[in-house]
Design brief:
about 425 residues, mainly alpha, 17 helices
Length: about 425
């Protein structure tokens, strides 16, 4: 999902032919259009040169057709390989999330009749470490675009951050492996926390979920650290651009100006566009509309963990787990927001704290957020975008764009009055 565009992932209806053709969001039209225009103008330039100075730059299309078959083969082969890598990456992400979900669910299932304080503490510790492990994977995948090291993830405790920094330094991709060791150690502590130790098969099942995570993560790292073969990319680009930009000369050999312009425009869009599709698929972990929104996928899993803990240990345990995970993050964001010294910072700080209140609807005792409260909450991405906007506007001394409606502004004023 594009982080600069709040429209979310690319969606479309396959039966809506006109909508698919005309949709610009997620399309490569914006990148291909300059090439189409340039090639169309080349047709006009070649005609002008022929009419003004009598220099005929057109040639027979026989050789050009043969070369076109070669270019087509290279483009289709590259697109096929890129799509296979793209789909494998998506499968591995699903395997990572699935292994974390199964670990949390099996932990709850195997210890359902253990209600001692130590058992609750052990379940919460395993759940928290699983969440942190998944959050660190998200950080590793987004490192190229965010530039945030895994040990800088605010959800980590100070001890965990120091352990990662001392043990790994700048080796960002190894951080989940260290946290996986911590998780395995936490699982092994069941002998100290449970009144009845886990059965051998049950313990092996939990460790197997961790092994599934490590296996999927290694597969993902294999794809990320093994780029598309450069010689094939170089050969494809070389033949592609030579063929595309000599296309006007071949078209004008036996077609008039209008038809040649039409053919040059759409043929360029077809061939160059297919290469841009491959480029989109090469790196699915960035911020382009067609990239995976790994953070959103992980956040859905977090919610499942809270639900599982709430199911066995109640609301207080679930809130405690949420606080353990989000407290470092809230402190980090509060520090950033208060440093801007603006009205927006005060608003977001107050409502960021409210996120933990009244999480359970007393009317039906379900573990769901109240709609009224959540409608006033801003997502973490919104808050970070606002911080960046505030800094930019403060440096340029421009008039701030209104970010809230009248009701929210009135609430901000009340908050400020209360703090004075």
């Amino acid at each position: 999902m594009s982080k600069t565009d709040e429209r979310g992932p690319v969606t479309y209806r396959t039966e809506d032919h006109l909508g698919v053709v005309m949709q610009m969001y997620g399309s490569v039209w914006s990148k291909v259009l300059p090439y189409c225009i340039v090639n169309t103008l080349l047709v006009v330039i070649i005609v002008i040169i022929n009419n003004q100075w009598g220099i005929d730059l057109s040639f027979s299309d026989k050789g050009h057709k043969t070369m076109g078959s070669l270019v087509s083969f290279l483009l289709v082969s590259r697109a096929k390989i890129s799509n296979a890598r793209y789909m494998e990456s998506r499968k591995l992400i699903s395997d990572i999330v699935k292994s974390c979900r199964e670990l949390a669910q099996h932990t709850i299932t195997f210890t359902r009749y253990e209600h001692s304080p130590l058992a609750k503490e052990w379940r919460a510790d395993v759940a928290r470490r699983t969440i942190i492990l998944l959050r660190t994977v998200v950080s590793v995948l987004q490192y190229e675009t965010k530039g945030i090291h895994a040990w800088q993830v605010p959800e980590l405790t100070v001890d965990e951050q120091q352990a990662l920094r001392v043990a790994l330094g700048e080796a960002n991709e190894r951080s989940p492996m260290v946290l996986a060791i911590f998780l395995r150690t936490a699982i092994a502590k069941h002998v100290e926390c449970l009144e009845k130790d886990l059965d051998v098969n049950q313990e092996l099942k939990l460790l197997e979920c961790t092994a599934d995570f490590v296996r999927a993560y290694h597969g993902l790292m294999k794809l990320i650290t093994t780029p598309f073969p450069f010689p094939l990319v170089q050969m494809t680009r070389t033949f592609l651009f030579f063929w595309v930009f000599t296309l006007p000369c071949a078209l004008l050999n036996d077609m008039d100006l209008v038809i040649s312009m039409f053919m040059a425009f759409f043929t360029t869009h077809c061939f160059v566009g297919l290469e841009f599709v491959s480029i989109e698929l090469d790196d699915p972990f960035g911020e382009d509309p067609n990239d995976f929104d790994v953070k959103a996928l992980a956040e859905v899993a977090y919610a499942d963990f809270y639900v599982s803990v709430h199911d066995i240990d109640g609301r207080e345990a679930a809130d405690t787990l949420r606080n353990a995970v989000h407290k470092p993050l809230r402190q980090e964001l509060r520090t950033q927001m208060l440093s801007t010294n603006t009205r927006v910072s005060i608003w977001n700080t107050r409502y960021l704290d409210r996120e933990q209140e009244d999480f359970c609807d007393d009317s039906n005792a379900e573990f769901v957020p109240k709609k009224k409260q959540m409608s006033k909450l801003l997502s973490m991405g919104d808050i970070q975008n606002m911080i960046a906007l505030e800094k930019q506007q403060k440096s340029s001394r421009k008039q701030m764009v209104p970010l809230f409606d009248e009701d929210q502004m009135q609430a901000i004023d009340e908050i400020q009055d209360g703090q004075v």
